[in-house]
Write a structure and sequence with these properties.
mainly beta; four-stranded antiparallel β-sheet; 343 residues; Neuraminidase
Amino acid sequence: MLLSAVIGLCGLLIGHSSNAQTLFVGDAVDSSVKQFDVATGTYAGAFVPAGANGLNGPMGMIFTNGQFLLVNQNVNTNSTGEILRFDGATGAHLTNLVSANTPNAPFAPRGIVRGGPDNSYYVADMVGESSCANGSVKRYDDAGTFLGNLDLGTFTDVFHPRGVVFGPDGDLYVSSAGCLDPNDAHFDPLKGNILRFDRTTGRFVKLIASNGTVTDLHRPEGLVFDNAGKLWVTSFQADPKDTDKILKLDATTGGLLDKLPLSKQNATPRSYAQAIIFGPDGKLYIPITGTDKKTTGEVRRCDTTTKLCDVVIPTIKAGGAIGSGWYLIFKNSDPATLNYRNN
């Protein structure tokens, strides 16, 4: 089954420098969460060390109530996924929100947010107990009690949720892909859907966009809203003539507004992204993974108006290279909307 920083200065300097902006990046290669100061690109060590507390496939992450919540997918094991809790200041493991192999643990979890009227945790569980069985978005309270799945209602297409985020309207937006198992008869790596669920009832409201309405929308995962209420979402190439890219969508009409390519057409090897986040400067931070050794592991910072990008974290950094960055977060990122909070 397919799966799928941080402090640049010492902790003392971070505490005394208002300019230090810490980005946390989950590394899918060594199963760690690394820290970087995005002002300098400086690496400050692992916030969660490689394999800590059984970490094997870090996915979605949020900071909430002084804690750091991290999705552990338990990749290529017989275990279900789990949600780990760490101290938000030290990275020390506290307990699990949801432990593996317990009733209602997520089978293959990806994104996580916390919000809604009851401030629940929402976890995208990509598949059921077989590679192409429909997944779900699971809800848990702060004690880890399972509260149920989102209600798909009239939505009848396949549902393999990957990213979750609360929008400016307060509703929950979910990215969903098709079957990603090439050995399954339902294999469909180009399918993509963006769905909206009611914040109060948890019921499906509307299909915002699909690869049928937006031909560039393929296998979406990370999704975030900008300050103007426009939705940005990751998308993979359909064929070698296409590009891996980030799409800008109108969340009301579902229309495509713009594209931010991550590589050129016919690019071999490829550069693409699984997840994205807006940072303290209003720019979009994009961790690059893929098959291109020259770009895999870098984090790009892009102005979404000019579409000009710089590499804020390079691929080669003494003692702190990212093997393959997937999900990422700032400590000040809102746990519901993932928007950066300046306070």
